[in-house]
Amino acid sequence: MWGYLSEFWGAVSQVGDYTVTWFQSLGNAVAGAIGGLLEDLTHHFYDIFYIAQWFLDNLGEMLATAFTPLTWIFNFVKGFFVSATMSLEELGIEVPEINLISDNVKAVFEIVPYMNLLLTAIAGVFGLMIVIFIVKRASRI
Amino acid sequence: MKPLPPIPQPALILIMAIPISVVLIWLIVGFSLPPAYWWGFFSFLFQ
Fold it and tell me: What ipTM goes with this model?
């Protein structure tokens, strides 16, 4: 047995020089063989997944094509309401400033001392009057 | 679906023993080789 093994090893070592590159190539070959074995096992599953992916992609495209008229109508209505409710500034249209009260008139009012306080008091009195009026009308019922 | 019958004991031992022994022999032979072999092996795997 040992004689046979030594003879075998002698035959192997006489074949040629076993360089570093040779051993690297051997490792490459073994890894490639294992990889190929796994590939053989998984290839069929990948094929099935690709078929399913292709089918679902086309199904989705068909549905999207079938719904294009509806999509157009929806987009048109949506765009209409969006643009209709947009302000002029959002649409990029310059709006000139309109002054109902001119600067001169404003200046006259600003001269009066405690104008803000007076306006507040007047508004408060008006509000109170409205509240009293509403209460009186409601109590009449 | 009907459950599969249990694998008989000798077949089970063979199913487990053959790959384990193959991998063990591969490891032993591989460790007796120069490191260039494993370098080549892993360089292929992570290329």
Answer: 0.70
